[in-house]
Design a protein that fits this description.
The chain is an all-alpha fold. The chain has one domain. The chain has six helices and no strands. It is globular. The two termini are about 20 Å apart.
């Protein structure tokens, strides 16, 4: 098996970008109001349950996701930005989107609209990271 090298700086930058995207995605500017309604909580309940470790873990898991995506992109040898976005989208469809829909909508029976908000964030994140990781090997 060939040795696949991953640009850790690019992975770290993608992790920051997707973390910031998440802050924007779940803000009142975009989907916060509908998302809070769909999860059945109030803003006050969310504020009471929030702690810094949640954000640390979210960043670490985002780093792991971006690392894996960088590995797949390097393995697939894509070099054009839109191919990187496509690899990101296909990874989302095959791994994140389908799995989360099965778990959250089919079995847990959460609303499809909630899945759409959460998975929409993941899809956009995968595509942005796929683009960056392709251009910045």
């Amino acid at each position: 098996m060939a040795v696949i090298q991953v640009n850790l700086v690019a992975v770290l930058v993608c992790s920051f970008i997707t973390f910031i995207l998440g802050a924007l995605w779940y803000s009142p500017l975009l989907f916060a109001k509908k998302w809070v309604e769909l999860i059945g909580k109030t803003d006050e309940e969310l504020k009471q349950g929030a702690n810094p470790m949640m954000y640390v873990m979210a960043f670490i898991l985002g780093f792991m996701t971006n690392f894996a995506l960088a590995f797949v992109i390097n393995l697939s040898k894509v070099t054009i930005f839109y191919d990187g976005a496509l690899v990101g989208a296909m990874c989302w469809i095959g791994f994140a989107g389908a799995t989360s829909y099965t778990n959250q909508v089919i079995f847990v029976q959460r609303p499809s609209a909630l899945w759409s908000i959460d998975s929409g964030y993941n899809l956009v994140s995968f595509m942005i990271s796929g683009t960056i990781l392709t251009l910045w090997k």
